[in-house]
Amino acid sequence: MKSSEILQGIEISEAPEDIISYSYDSSIAEPAKPKAVAWPKNSEQVLKLLNFAKERNFSIIPRGAGSGMAGASVPVGKECIVMSFEKMRKIIDIDTRNMTVVVEPGIINGRLQRELEYLGYFYPPDPASLNICTIGGNVATNAGGPRAVKYGVTRNYVMGIEAVLADGTPISAGGRTHKRTVGYDLRNLLTGSEGTLALFTRIRLKILPLPEDVITLLLIFRDIESAGALPAKISTAKVIPRTMEFMDRAAIDAIEKYKPTGFPAEAEAVLLVELDGYPSTIRKEAERVVDICRTLGGEAIIAEDDSARESLWDARRVLSPALYKIKPNKLNEDIVVPRDKLAPALAAFRKISEDSGIKIVCFGHAGDGNIHVNIMIDKLQKEEYQKGLELVRDVFDVALRLGGSISGEHGIGLVKKPYIGMEIKDRELELMGGIKRLFDPEGLLNPGKIIP
Predict the structure, then answer these.
(1) Which pick of 15, 97, 178, 405 has the fewest CB atoms within 10 Å?
(2) Tell me: the pLDDT tens digits for 38-60?
(3) What is the structure's pLDDT at 211?
(4) Would you say 102 and 441 are in contact if contact means Cβ atoms under 8 Å apart?
(5) Which pLDDT band, with edges at 50, 70 and 90, does 304 fall under?
(6) Who contacts 144 (Cβ-Cβ below 8 Å, separation ≥6)?
(7) Does residue 220 share a domain with residue 297?
């Protein structure tokens, strides 16, 4: 690829080590090498790179930290440039009077959280990968996290997006106000679009005051059905925890082998429940949760201090890497079902595992029915890998039959694209394809993703 005056001052590389490093993400999508990798540092450089790519008929693959699980930032086609936003990482403005923050897309979620907490505020969406994932990637995939049960997902906090369209036109969707009903909501359309409609250059987010206090409970169950029934029971008791994380027996075993935490050996499932707010209020709510837990035959342990609380969360955070002690690969599906269908979904996944002989590990955000179903396989064992891929459709069938969805927070990207027709009908897919063509008629931005 010959250089151009257009690219003066822009960091761009065709070095083999960079090409390889940016050929894959955290998903099982097959790696594909781009033509080059570029690291713009501002919106002007984004536009220059876009114009350079258009002149040569290259496509652009936008990328945050590569922590996505659906292959949305994996290159498609040899004639493409990966545009990494990791060097556009400034916090531009924190407005505590209006409770908003403006950031560049490459800022790490965890860094933003820490900066806000210092001032007594917080940004609720907290993916498990918060210490490595970027806000731009979170917005592109509409990321969730443990706190979504109470506070919602990324879309609920995006107030405004500045972006560049495929034709080089800068656009602004949304703005500074907390309410807005003017025209079609392009801000919500861009959120979750996985880099297929526009390139984000600046994002305005809503922030909230830090809660006064937090109570953390570990709920232990001897059968998975009772654990699955808990979230709906808590909802009917008019308690909304800020987190309700679920781990099944296989997940507990994986944690104990990777980093022993002391989870009870007899537990078939545990839930990590947190309540936040005024101390007197959350104490009463905690008592209700404990009562419901005991009614279902469970046991409740209250974290006595910050150290005990952090120890429980450390166990939850190490779960994903701990799974690789079971098998070298996993098919990580993030299905979601209505809250009151959690118990039958978990029972169905256990049966699929038993019938197939392939280990399935379930954990996730029980409070909003979002289960991470991990089908553990070795990709080098062809028969086992193929069998695992066949189980993916069975898992999706269960979710859809129970009124759920094939993705709660990872998105579609490349990995789930073959299955999107299971949930989205032909006419709706045609409308989505029309939107893509309107925003990007030449298919320049992240081609091959989402739409079959």
Answers:
(1) 97
(2) 999 999 999 999 999 999 999 99
(3) 96
(4) no
(5) confident
(6) 125, 127, 153, 154, 365, 368, 370, 408, 409
(7) yes
In a shared domain, residues 141 and 180: yes
What is the pTM for the complete model shown? 0.95
315: domain CATH number? 3.30.70.3450
What tokens were used for 250?
A: 């296989």
- The 8-class DSSP code of residue 6 comes to G
Alpha-carbon span 145 to 48, nearest angstrom: 35
CATH of the domain at 366: 3.30.70.2740
Residues 136 and 71 in one domain: no
Of 285, 260, 262, 259, the C-alpha closest to 274 is: 285
**Per-residue confidence (pLDDT) for residue 1, from 0 to 100:** 58
Distance CA 175, CA 104 (A): 15
Shared-domain flag, residues 109 and 198: yes
Q: Name residues whose C-beta falls within 8 Å of residue 444's C-beta, 6 or more positions apart in sequence.
A: 50, 53, 54, 59, 60, 166
Of 366, 382, 401, the residue at which a domain comes to its end is 401
Residue 194: give its domain's CATH number.
3.30.465.10
Give the model confidence (pLDDT) of 119-175 as tens digits: 999 999 999 899 999 999 999 999 999 999 999 999 999 999 999 999 999 999 999
The mean per-residue pLDDT over the stretch 196-220 comes to 97
Residue 119 neighbours by CB distance under 10 Å: 13
Residues 169-182 pLDDT 10s = 999 999 999 998 99
Mean pLDDT along residues 194-212: 98
Number of domains in the chain: 4
Q: Distance between CA 369 and CA 217 in Å, rounded?
A: 19
Question: Is residue 327 within 8 Å of residue 377, measured between CB atoms?
Answer: yes
Helix (H) or strand (E) holding 181: none
Per the listing, tokens 């890998």 go with: 385
